[in-house]
Please model this.
Amino acid sequence: MLGDLDPSKRKMFIVGGGISGLLCAWRFARAGYPTTVVEAQARWGGLIQTHQLEHGIAETALHSFLESPLVHQFLEELRFDRVEVRKNSRARFIVRAGQPRRLPLRPHELLLLATRYVFTSFPHTPADEMTLKEWGDGRLGAAGTAYLLNPFLRGIYAARPEELGVQACFPDLLRKPKKNKKLIGPRRMIAGRLGSESLIRTLVERIQETKNAALRLSTQIETLPSDANVIMTAPAYAAADILKTSHPQISELLASIRYVPLVTITVFVEAASIAPSRGVGIGALFPEAENSRTLGILFNSSAFENRVRDETSAAAYTVLLGGSAQPEVMAETDTELLVRVDHDLRVVLGSGVRRLSAKITRWPRALPLYSNRLASTWSALSSELKNAPGLLLFGNYTGQISLRGMIETVMALPLLPTP
Model:
C-alpha cells in the first residue's frame, strides 16, 4: 500500500469494490471507522467471478491462494468456508520435450545448478536495474532459468524473466539470509468451498454486519471527499482517470503502469478419457522454450473438491494463455483458442482426452507488469503522496500481486489512534 492515513480524518472513502477495496473496507469498518465503498460496476469483486455451468464451476480469475498464519487469522475472523488442496493431489509439473515432468532438469543440469548456486556470487548489476533473467542466469544457469525460473514466473506474473525486476518481484533474493530469521509459519493452498466468488459474498456480508459501512454499486466518482481518507483500490489506469484533475502528477504516474493480457479457459473433459496417472496434482507449467502459447494448466477438480458436479464423469482444468509476450491471443477467435487448448491438454492429459465444454474469459489488462520500471514508479508515487496525506493507493500493482500478500498487507495496517 502506498501513502499514509491522515490521523485528523476518521472517515474512510474507498474507491473500487474489487477484492482489494473490500479487504480495506472490512478492516476499517470492523474497527469502527465510518466507511464508504463506491464501485462503478453493477457487481462486487472486480475480476473475481464464479460461473455455475453444466459440468461444474468456472472461475474467471482467482482459483486458489496460500493461507499463511495471518491469512488464517483473517479467514477465521471472516468465517469463510474453504477447502484445502487434496493430500494426494499436490504434485506440480513442468512440461519439457512435450511431456509433463515433476523434475524437468536432467542430472547433469541439476549438478551444475547446485554448484552454481552455492559457489557463484550475486550478479554485479545494481539491484534496481537487475532483471530476474540476469539473476537466474547468474545463480541458476541456462537450464535452471529456462526450465524452472521461466515457467514459474510465467505462471505467476504472465511475463518473462527478462521483463521482471528482482526489486519488484523478490527483493529478498539480493539479501543475504539472516540468522534466526523470524519464523513466518506454514502455508497451505486453499480455495473457497463454493468457488472464489463466495469470498466476495462473504466479505460484503461481514462488512454490512458491522453497521459502519455504506456500499454503493454503479456509482461514478466525480469529486473526492475532503473530510475522509481516500483509498484508491481501482486498477492503476482507472485511478489515473479519477485523479487526473485533483492530482495530475500522481495520475500521470499511474497511467504509465503497464498491464499484460490474459485469457483463461476453463475446460471440462470426460474423466474416463484421461490417461492413467495423468492430470493428478495442482497443475502443469509450460516453459517458453516449449513454444506454446499456454502459460500453464490448473488441475481444478484434481486439486480441490466441489469443482465438478460428478467426478466420475467429468474433470475440470483451467488453461492460461497470453501474457506479456503473446498479446495477440486476445484477437484469436474462440475456435482458434480451443485448437491450442486441445493440443496442450493432450500433452498433459494424454492423446485420447475428450473435451466436453469450455468457458473462455479474456482480460485485456489482467495483471500489472512487475518490471524495474514499476518499482521506480512506486518510489515516485511515494514521494508524490507525501504531499497528499490521506490519499492511499492499494491494489495488485502496489507491491503484492497475490491475494495472500494483499490480505497480509491489510491485516498489518496500523489503525488510527482513538481520539
